[in-house]
Amino acid sequence: MAKLSVLRLTALTLILGFTFACATGDGSRRKKKEEFTREGNTITVIGEAPIYNGDIANAKQRAIKDAKVNAVRKVVGEEISNKSQASDGESLGSSLLSKTDAFVKSYDIVAEDQGKIDTQPILKLTVRCTIEESKLSTAVEGLLADVGNPRIVVLVPSKVGGAPVPPLSNGNIAEAEIIKGLKKAGNKIVDPGTASKTVKPSGLNADAINALDSGAAILIQAQSSGAEVLVVGSVETEDQAPVTAIGGKALDRPLFNTAATGPYKVILLWGDGKVVASGNGDARGADITQKVSREKALAGWAEDVTKKVNKQLKDEWFNLTENNTIILKFTGLDADESTKFKDDLAELTAAKDINVRTSNVSGSEWEVTYPGKDALFMDELVYKKDRGFTFLATKKMNVKSAARGVVTLEFTSNK
């Protein structure tokens, strides 16, 4: 398959595991590189699981599952990196890990060992897995086709010959042309009929578009439509002097001449609502009738905007995916516990950076840079909380919600 252009992550299925880091002898807090070797469709990896109440049989089943996940993750990561421009193929492909059993044809336990993380007994297996390469390759191609194109809602209030044309209405030429162009580029669109059930764009105009921020009602409504990105613009036609000659040659009859201009923005509908692109569109239209000259100008404006949006969005999308900003809110940790939690996130999860906005026992808010969306981060937290988070000997972590780039946790005492 030819290398795909810059793609986008939006797959939201259960993650079974990411990087598992063990405590090192010098106490350093860094992610551990997992050991693995690959020969063709056979990959040898490590699988680990805690031993609870001396139940080694149960731990072995969990360690085998962990090994299968690690094997599939490695192969998926290589496939994605080879077929796309992703620098972090393993994280991008994590949504396929729920199908691990379908991709592992067979496995053998090569070695078995036991150890401890702090006081927790751990079973460590070396497992050789045989991968169903063709099945996995097909799944990766399907993922990339889906992941590379965000789900978009388009809102374009227009003023044509002085008459307003509201967004999501029949006869909105500019909006319809942008939708057509975005679809042609492979993007998924929330159709106007569906969007109109939740989005109420009254009062949306050029000034309102320029002033849009993360708390704007229109963004919340657009989120409710199921979209991940909002493309919003405003266009107005202005009739120009008739065209009487082209290239110095007089026309048999003058042509009506219309200009269409207006701004646009591309806004992410999660987290802080980042504006990833903005600009202005401009076009001209000419025809023997004024109505058609205006329509041509609107279509030209839409084409100009669509080209810019596609380029800007595609140029940004993998970076946005691999460095997604998630707002993490939680209660119940004091300063010392928060420090340990931050260390655990840095060492044991795929989090790339953690910026503390506010931190106190009654309510903390952190900004986490993460290669995936909120549901993926939530699933990793749930998976990892039983696998080495150091402070959880005294605290219980409950995931309250994960939506639109905000993950909310509650910590309560185990006592």
Automatic annotation (TrEMBL):
Task: Please name the Gene3D superfamilies in this protein's record.
Answer: FlgT, N-terminal domain
What keywords would UniProt list here?
Lipoprotein, Signal
Keyword Lipoprotein present in the record's keywords: the answer is: yes
PROSITE patterns, per the entry: PROKAR_LIPOPROTEIN
Superkingdom is: Bacteria
User: Which interval of the chain is the signal sequence?
Assistant: 1-23
- The answer to whether UniProt assigns keyword Thylakoid to this entry is no
Q: What is this protein called?
A: Lipoprotein LipL46
Q: Which organism is it from?
A: Leptospira sarikeiensis
User: Mind giving the lineage of the organism this protein is from?
Assistant: Bacteria, Pseudomonadati, Spirochaetota, Spirochaetia, Leptospirales
